[in-house]
């Protein structure tokens, strides 16, 4: 399973409609997008498998996130601290967060294992804050695993089209 | 245009129009950014012959390159023919720069090497007359600065009292040269001087960065108990530069009385390094993990802030680009450089736990000031307790606005010089 390969280089197969896990994964990714737009971060945390990895790299080509500078490189602990920061009431940027509406589509399954599936997609996020509307586009790669409770996110990599340029973001998550 | 600029900056306040007036911004580009020494790179970014990176001086794009003889060149990124930029790759290694339009090609030092179909230029153009425009370049302790003014004072004189603190800053390499490990880039809608002020503003830290403070371990939070630490002082260093000490015991990392306990958060690093390093060396490296215990603000565009560089680029009167440059130990232990990356990610950048709150505050300043440009910006905190230190440098508490007053005094000097 090419779980470490950038989405652009990964072998792509059309969404396999005969594999119910693919549809379950897409459903989970859509639910995730809904929760993030609604800033329901505690609920979002519940979508993650233990040991999950949430990455927004600067270098779109790298898979060695630990050795490079990222915009986000969260393990469980950092992700939960991030949620605490966004919901705790002490961050002025979180209090003034941009409104976001995101669309996730162009799903392609890039890897399948007995208990996991890797799925790449396109995310177009439109944000609004203080008289300004802006767009952030990204390639998403989700690794979805199954446990007794159903599908969970074990890795999410968000490769912004402009990750190595200036990035406008304020108080929301990708 | 000859506005009464000197009246805009007083010893304890500056006019709100300094953030909002487009004419003042144009004058700042001409009289400050296009004349003085402006930081463009760290030597580790152009370490090998052929290495280059692009940068900005004010609104002018430049290239910083290392030529085959090891020299550092800073060149205007503009073809001498019809003006196209000759390099749009942010960093890389190559033999030179070729204009995409008519393939005029330039060497790493800017020399014009080749013109295709040269017959049309016979008796018209001599290649030696048309190199890329070359700036005066200077380097101190690995920090590369450049100026469009070839008659400018020597870099060492310009840095003056800041040199001691640049030397101290580099001690966080703990025996290794400091190297660039990447950068975060973002913009905020606000004037560049709001950011310039911020690096010498420890007053905002426990307030704006409360969410970051509550997310770090108690030892790190306690390390930054600036408000109540009398050893947290700020010095005006001349020429607009200033330093504000946040962690006094880390102001000079070579000085260690042995009483400081290494932070528990780094115990995994101590354990790993101790496998093949003597305890003194491990301690020296781990004490340096948060960087130097101060923010050094160099007028007009770079700060050496604890463990990173903060570089500002004025985009327009009401928009500024920021780069937060992560640093590591060149040739140092991988586990240390990774930890430094994680510390940087925790605070910096558009998704850090610190930078977005700074950017929010800076944007609010711009919006508020735009609504009331007739009212002054106050930079008077600590005036009543500011005194010269042994070197005669105005000195006050790190939460005081001594550094801002120093920057604005330099701004006034450069904006009014000769009038």
Automatic annotation (TrEMBL), chain A:
Keyword Glycoprotein annotated: no
Biological process according to GO: 3-phenylpropionate catabolic process
Pfam families reported in the protein's UniProt record: Ring_hydroxyl_B
Keywords, ordered alphabetically: Oxidoreductase
InterPro entries for the chain: NTF2-like_dom_sf, Rng_hydr_dOase-bsu
GO molecular function, one term: oxidoreductase activity
Family affiliation: Belongs to the bacterial ring-hydroxylating dioxygenase beta subunit family.
The protein, known as: Aromatic-ring-hydroxylating dioxygenase subunit beta
Organism of origin: Streptomyces acidicola
UniProtKB/TrEMBL annotation, chain B:
Domain of life: Bacteria
Transmembrane segments: none
Protein name, as recorded: Aromatic ring-hydroxylating dioxygenase subunit alpha
GO molecular function: 2 iron, 2 sulfur cluster binding; dioxygenase activity; iron ion binding; monooxygenase activity; oxidoreductase activity, acting on paired donors, with incorporation or reduction of molecular oxygen
Keyword Oxidoreductase part of the UniProt annotation: yes
InterPro entries: ARHD_Rieske_2Fe_2S, Rieske_2Fe-2S, Rieske_2Fe-2S_sf, Ring_hydroxy_dOase_asu_C_dom, Rng_hydr_dOase-A
Cofactor dependence: Fe cation
């Amino acid at each position: 399973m090419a779980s470490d390969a950038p989405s652009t280089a990964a072998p792509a197969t059309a969404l396999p409609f005969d594999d119910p896990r693919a549809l379950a994964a897409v459903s989970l990714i859509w639910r995730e997008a809904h929760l993030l737009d609604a800033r329901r971060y505690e609920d979002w945390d519940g979508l993650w498998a233990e040991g999950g990895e949430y990455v927004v790299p600067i270098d779109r080509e790298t898979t060695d996130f630990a050795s490079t500078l990222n915009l986000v490189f969260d393990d469980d602990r950092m992700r939960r601290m991030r949620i605490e920061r966004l919901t705790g009431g002490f961050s002025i940027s979180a209090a003034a967060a941009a409104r976001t509406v995101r669309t996730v589509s162009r799903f392609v399954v890039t890897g399948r294992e007995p208990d996991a599936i890797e799925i790449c997609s396109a995310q177009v996020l439109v944000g609004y804050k203080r008289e300004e509307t802006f767009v952030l586009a990204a390639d998403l790669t989700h690794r979805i695993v199954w446990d007794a409770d159903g599908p969970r996110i074990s890795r999410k990599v968000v490769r912004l089209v402009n990750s190595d340029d200036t990035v406008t973001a304020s108080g929301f998550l990708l | 245009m000859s506005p009464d600029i000197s009246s805009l900056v007083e010893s304890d306040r500056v006019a709100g129009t300094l953030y909002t007036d487009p004419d003042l911004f144009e004058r700042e580009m001409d009289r400050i950014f296009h004349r003085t020494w402006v930081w463009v790179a760290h030597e580790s970014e152009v370490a090998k012959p052929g290495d280059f990176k692009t940068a900005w001086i004010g609104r002018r794009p430049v290239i910083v390159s290392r030529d085959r003889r090891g020299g550092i060149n800073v060149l205007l990124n503009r073809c001498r023919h019809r003006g196209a930029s000759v390099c749009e790759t942010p960093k890389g290694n190559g033999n030179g720069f070729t204009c995409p339009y008519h393939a005029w090609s330039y060497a790493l030092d800017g020399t014009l090497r080749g013109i295709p179909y040269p017959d049309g230029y016979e008796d018209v153009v001599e290649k030696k007359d048309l190199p890329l425009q070359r700036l005066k370049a200077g380097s101190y302790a690995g920090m590369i600065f450049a100026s469009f003014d070839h008659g400018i004072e020597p870099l060492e004189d310009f840095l003056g009292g800041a040199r001691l603190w640049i030397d101290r800053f580099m001690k966080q390499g703990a025996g290794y040269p400091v190297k660039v490990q990447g950068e975060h880039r973002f913009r905020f809608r606000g004037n560049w001087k709001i950011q310039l002020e911020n690096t010498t503003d420890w007053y905002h830290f426990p307030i704006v960065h409360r969410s970051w403070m509550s997310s770090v371990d108690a030892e790190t939070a306690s390390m930054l108990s600036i408000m109540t630490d009398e050893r947290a002082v700020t010095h005006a260093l001349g020429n607009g530069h200033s330093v504000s000490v946040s962690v006094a015991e880390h102001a000079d990392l070579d000085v260690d009385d042995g009483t400081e306990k290494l932070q528990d958060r780094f115990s995994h690093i101590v354990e790993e390094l101790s496998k093949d390093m003597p305890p003194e060396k491990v301690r020296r490296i781990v004490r340096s993990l948060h960087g130097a215990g101060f923010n050094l603000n160099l007028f007009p565009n770079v700060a050496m802030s604890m463990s990173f560089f903060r570089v500002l680029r004025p985009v327009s009167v009401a928009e500024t680009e920021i780069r937060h440059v992560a640093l590591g130990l060149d040739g140092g232990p991988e586990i240390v450089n990774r930890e430094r990356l994680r510390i940087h990610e925790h605070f910096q950048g558009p998704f850090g736990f610190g930078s977005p709150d700074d950017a929010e505050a800076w944007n609010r300043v711009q919006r508020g000031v735009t609504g009331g440009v007739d009212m002054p910006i106050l930079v008077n905190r600590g005036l009543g307790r500011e005194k010269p230190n042994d070197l005669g440098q105005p000195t006050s508490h790190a939460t005081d606005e001594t550094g801002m007053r120093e920057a604005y005094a330099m701004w006034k000097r450069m904006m009014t010089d000769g009038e």
